[in-house]
Amino acid sequence: MNLAQHVLTAGLSCPDKLALSVIGATGADHWSFQRLTRAVRGTATGLLQAGLCPGDRLLMRLGNRPSFPIAYLGAIVAGIVPVPTSAQLTRSEITRLAAQIGPAMIVAGAGIALPDHPAPVLAEEVLQGFHDLPPADFAQGDPERLAYIVFTSGSSGQPRAVMHAHRAISARRMMFDGWYGMTGADRLLHAGAFNWTFTLGTGLMDPWTLGATALIPAEGTPLEQIPLLASRHGATILAGAPGIFRRLLRADWRPIPTLRHGLAAGERLDPALRDAWTARTGTDLHEAMGASEISTFLSGSPDRPAPPGTAGFPQPGRHVAVLDDAGQPLPAGQAGDLAVRHDDPGLFLGYLDQPQDTAVRFRGDWFLTGDRAVADDRGAVSLLGRGDDMMNAGGFRVAPPEIEDVLAAHPQAGEVAAVELPVGPGTSVIAAFWTGMAEPQALRALAETHLARYKQPRDYIRLEALPRTPTGKINRRALREAHRKDHP
Questions:
Q1: 263 and 399 share a domain?
Q2: What is the pTM of this model?
Q3: pLDDT tens, 65-92?
Q4: Which of 323, 345, 375 is the last residue of a domain?
Q5: Of 222, 231, 287, nearest to 250 (Cα)?
Q6: Which range marks the domain in which residue 468 is found?
Q7: Buried b / exposed e along 418-453 (16+ C-beta atoms within 10 A)
Q8: Looking at the domain assignment, is residue 339 inside a domain?
Q9: pLDDT tens for each residue of 111-162
């Protein structure tokens, strides 16, 4: 098996069909399945000729352009392990990640921070020159072997390298009926950037697996232009984070005549936002809940919409349960830990070089997602919050220590805490609290220098003291409750 071959096979029967359009106000860049496949397999040849070997790790530092998915799939064709990362990460952040994975090579776009690491750097311009090289063969092997690595923030604040097998791509088919309601005739417009893993999976690889067309806004496209572009290019499904749909509802645009429904993921979908979207467009919004370790596994779909206030149902083929402390599934109506069975084909292989951290995520035969939940008699699951203090910033999960460690470096910061504060229905921001004499401008400057933009606190709130639990830990819940209404 080869993951990239699985993604590209449907396009063999329709080589001239449109696989990808990068759409903007001034035109579009069109990629047929034939052109896409040639570029991917040529890139695989170029990476091998550049000195990479199967099993080597390729750190991806590319921007919001087609080079990103082409390099990603090209590496997998050759048996090379791509490691996609956010272009927003700073030099210090990406240096820490590079130290974890030990890349054999880095592919880099202009203006994107590179790590302090000895691996050779391959410029994006050179990468693009590989497209027309002779096509490489698909490296075949055990579906259980490592295919790619993504990073997720651990609750300790240290991002973890999550290893996924080639088999993970076949598990994504559970989303086709369980969430997307997508066929090969669809034209899916994803409002995210190429280099976001949500876009990579839902916006690109899954449509291509079905032989459907992917539409991606060109870099720099104002969000308010997306409905116009969707109408102009016949989008039938629109995907993005809930915050994107919220912003679209504030803009002035005409209905999209071809639109069948929308797909939301990355953060909680507020029921009021779903209702407002339906009232405005006459179409539903279907939410999915997932994790870096397994992608999505709970969702509503056109054939089975999520009951109001729930995250939806386990996707067909998934084994999902709410567990008690002993690892036993609980009956409907009882709250516990949300878990997915260990033999799910989409479940990760583990955290790179962290067997103990991998082991603690399992309880018996179940992988613990870290969420608290309750299921009803129909099987619909309602989320009750995280079992840890993870925060959500526009679809990216951020651990408080990632921010706290940076701000605490200021000699006058005192004690520091980072908390996600609700500021409205379905909307929240990251806030930083500190007890020292440091000026907020100085803390903000530290964050801007050392943290990706999505991790940077929106609010800075000085306190005389941080609330503590009886055991002496920072009481983040008390901070949330005390300040949620003070910052509308």
A1: no
A2: 0.85
A3: 999 999 999 999 999 999 999 998 999 9
A4: 375
A5: 222
A6: 391-483
A7: bbbbebeebebbbbbbbebebeeeebeebbeebbbe
A8: yes
A9: 999 999 999 999 999 999 999 999 999 999 999 999 999 998 765 567 899 9
